[in-house]
Amino acid sequence: MWAGRILCAALSRAPRGCRPQSALAQLRGILEEELEGIREAGTWKSERVITSRQGPRIHVDGVSGGIINFCANNYLGLSSHPEVIQAGLQALEEFGAGLSSVRFICGTQSIHKDLEAKIARFHQREDAILYPSCFDANAGLFEALLTPEDAVLSDELNHASIIDGIRLCKAHKYRYRHLDVADLEAKLQEAQKHRLRLVATDGTFSMDGDIAPLQDICRLASQYGALVFVDDCHATGFLGATGRGTDELLGVMDQVAIINSTLGKALGGASGGYTTGPGSLVSLLRQRARPYLFSNSLPPAVVGCASKALDLLMENNAIVQSMAAKTQRFRRKMEAAGFTISGANHPICPVMLGDARLASCMADDMQKRERGRSNAERQRRARQRSMSPGANQGLRRRWLFRRECPSLAEEWP
Ligand code: PLP
Prior knowledge:
Elements: H1 2-11, H2 18-40, E1 57-58, E2 67-68, H3 82-95, H4 103-106, H5 110-123, E3 127-131, H6 134-145, E4 151-155, H7 160-168, E5 172-176, H8 181-190, E6 197-202, H9 214-223, E7 227-231, H10 246-249, E8 258-262, E9 273-277, H11 279-288, H12 290-293, H13 300-315, H14 318-336, H15 356-372, H16 375-387, H17 395-398
Parallel strand pairs: 4-5, 4-6, 6-7, 7-8
Antiparallel strand pairs: 1-2, 3-9, 8-9
Helix pairs in contact: 1-2, 3-13, 5-13, 6-7, 6-11, 8-9
The protein binds pyridoxal-5'-phosphate.
């Protein structure tokens, strides 16, 4: 008994009693073990702290001088476009910092309605609904739309948020092999017994930049009476002739029923997501989608930035075309320098080193070298490099190597 009291006193200096403290000590032990496992596997993700705006050139804590950033999903460079920033400031000034409410209680402003209408117009769909993120749009859709009478057929490499969204719904679940239309057809045949069939796929897959075979998927969907849903986060704003996305690129805009996408990548890069599609579906989501019903409205500044990004894209096609040209140039030059770049002709240009640990070590190493260099030393090496025949080799050290290298846009003044 005394021993128990002494242990209790040792574990707990705070007046909370010994039981919760010992549970906490046990939890700490479990967590430490788990964390050590991640470190040992070489998959520990450390976060570099950016001290500047997002852009092709950034400043990072602990590294003197700027570095080139190939890791963000700031595909069009709009997250630091002066007009986008100005629109955000104006919305902040006019509509305040935030709504302190969800949409249906007292959180809908005119700018939310305007942005939803603009998104629907951009995608040439009937209506659109905003969410705090595309993760939320994916969490909200399937549960609200599908019942135990229905079926969802999902590419095995779909984004985590689609997978989680599908987990939340009670429909029958079929998983087809990545991009494999023959397997999808087999699963569609099996799924004929259900009321609705929904094929769910990323438009472009973020890890390798590979593109879903939407023409085949839509053909099968029509043959087997299925709907097609596309998560187009890595295509909205820049794929296709006018940047509408993967469905435009592959000529199936009229066959993809539902699109979810993000405002947090090409469209200004702040945050927010949406579903666009049939008006009745959007109406149902406003009644039933839990992340819409139970999470705060998008802040006005975020709405202002995204709205301006869409204006810029709808006014003029030049940004989209310049992105496509830069992608081709980057892929060509990297391959000529001896790197293997995988994926389709998409601005996600995964530099394949073939080993996750190696990629992570290489990124850290490049930053350490950068950190260790004095200004004078850097200038001396830059001079040397520019005089040497393999002048661009030195650049490799300055890239943050990740699997995605899409930020190829020009820096805005
Ligand atoms: N879907 C895909 C394919 C994504 O790549 C991402 C983000 O990385 C999301 C959804 C989530 O988007 P958001 O950041 O708006 O939640």
